[in-house]
């Protein structure tokens, strides 16, 4: 019922108009200082004739900077003559979170990537999810959502997607992952709550989707930004939406991320001392980290251990941690 109701957003651009347009998707937001105010979420559309419709998003979590910078540059530099079809670009999807430098919205605490399909009558984050799910994604051929580890995690730069229902669909995903050209790529098995993501919303509409985890740690590095910008253009060329120059990507190591035992969580509150680094190969039962108790430093630290063999693709970037915080996750070589 919610999905059939129209979004309340006002869009300043016309997705059917040729050329490059930039403007805002206006989110109604009535507050004490501004009774009839709105939140200006930046959006761009680049259209040139017939071709695929591609939705590109970043800033789904506001503290993930790499994709936001890369998509901003794409908007500035892309010549419409190099485009075939329509590109819709949403560089800071959870705009309030991006402006606050936070994973979640400072307005309603909403995690956009756990809010789909959203509601036109919900809070700001739910309204953004509904706008993407009912306005941007319907009719799209592809949706690419660029994430990173944000403030709390660091990743080996990765491309990723969820295992598809058919071999043909999975092979198509693998083709996108290899095209992007990150050092590693992985295919995941859904964990609880991940059926409310942008990617899941796209899949439910039959839109081919792929994502990334591009570094993190609350920073942007030159090498990862170069990878993001080149990888985006390779993806667009691969789906025949871009005819401009591309650089050849490097080979990717294809992995899978399985169930909960691929993840390591803090067993106690404390200061996290990692005992493994990104790119390490580890064994089940191996010590992953120590949690030090600075409030009672005479106590022996608590031990967190790996529950599976694998490659360390993700590591917590923050020392102070609480029980339940993710410390690591692993990948194992893809076997199909």
Structural class: alpha+beta
Q: Which blocks of ≥5 consecutive residues have pLDDT under 50?
A: none
How many helical stretches? Answer: 6
CATH-assigned fold name of the largest domain: Aminopeptidase
How many domains make up the coordinates? 2
Termini distance? 38 Å
Overall pLDDT? 95
Gyration radius over CA: 20 Å
Beta-strand proportion: 25-35%
Strand runs, count: 19
Describe the global form.
Answer: globular
* Corresponding CATH superfamily of the largest domain: Zn peptidases
Describe this protein with a few key phrases:
4-stranded antiparallel β-sheet; 15-stranded mixed β-sheet; globular; alpha+beta; OB fold (Dihydrolipoamide Acetyltransferase, E2P); Aminopeptidase; 2 domains; single chain; 336 residues; 19 strands
Short description:
The strands form two sheets. The chain has a 15-stranded mixed beta sheet that branches. It has a four-stranded antiparallel beta sheet with strand order 16-15-13-18, with no helix packed on it. It folds into two domains: 10-256, Aminopeptidase; 264-329, RNA polymerase II/Efflux pump adaptor protein, barrel-sandwich hybrid domain (OB fold (Dihydrolipoamide Acetyltransferase, E2P)). It is built from six helices and 19 strands.
Describe the structure.
The chain is α+β, with helices and mostly antiparallel strands and about 325 residues long. It folds into 2 domains: about 10-255, Aminopeptidase; about 265-330, RNA polymerase II/Efflux pump adaptor protein, barrel-sandwich hybrid domain (OB fold (Dihydrolipoamide Acetyltransferase, E2P), Beta Barrel), CATH 2.40.50.100. It is built from 6 helices and 19 strands. The strands form 2 sheets. It has a 15-stranded mixed beta sheet that branches. A 4-stranded antiparallel beta sheet has the order 16-15-13-18, with no helix packed on it. Helix 1 packs across helix 6 (about 220-240). It is globular and about 65 Å long. The chain starts with 9 loop residues before the first strand and ends with a strand. The model has no long low-confidence stretch (mean pLDDT about 95).
């Amino acid at each position: 019922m919610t999905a059939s109701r129209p979004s309340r957003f006002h869009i300043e651009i016309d997705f059917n108009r040729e050329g490059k347009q930039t403007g805002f998707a206006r989110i109604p937001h009535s507050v004490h200082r501004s009774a009839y105010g709105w939140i200006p979420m930046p959006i761009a559309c680049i259209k040139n004739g017939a071709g695929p419709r591609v939705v590109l998003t970043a800033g789904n979590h506001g503290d993930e900077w790499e994709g936001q910078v890369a998509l901003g540059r794409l908007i500035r530099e892309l010549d419409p003559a190099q485009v075939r079809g329509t590109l819709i670009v949403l560089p800071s999807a959870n705009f309030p979170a991006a402006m606050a430098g936070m994973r979640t919205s400072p307005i309603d605490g909403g995690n956009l990537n756990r809010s789909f399909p959203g509601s036109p009558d919900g809070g700001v984050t739910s309204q953004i999810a509904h706008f993407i799910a009912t306005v941007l994604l319907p009719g799209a051929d592809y949706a690419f959502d660029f994430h990173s580890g944000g403030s709390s995690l660091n990743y080996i730069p990765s491309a990723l997607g969820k295992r598809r229902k058919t071999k043909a669909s999975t092979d198509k995903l693998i083709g996108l992952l290899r095209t992007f050209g990150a050092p590693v790529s992985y295919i995941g098995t859904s964990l609880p709550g991940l059926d409310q993501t942008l990617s899941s919303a796209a899949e439910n509409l039959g839109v081919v989707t792929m994502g990334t985890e591009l570094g993190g740690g609350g920073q942007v590095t030159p090498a990862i930004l170069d990878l993001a910008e080149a990888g985006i253009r390779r993806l667009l060329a691969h789906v025949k939406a871009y005819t401009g120059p591309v650089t050849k990507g490097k080979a990717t190591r294809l992995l899978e991320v399985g169930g909960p035992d691929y993840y390591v969580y803090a067993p106690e509150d404390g200061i996290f001392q990692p005992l493994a680094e990104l790119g390490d190969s580890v064994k089940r039962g191996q010590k992953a980290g120590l949690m030090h108790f600075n409030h009672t430093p005479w106590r022996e630290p608590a031990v967190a251990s790996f529950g599976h063999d694998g490659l360390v693709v993700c590591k917590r970037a923050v020392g102070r941690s609480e029980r339940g915080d993710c410390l690591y996750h692993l990948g194992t070589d893809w076997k199909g």
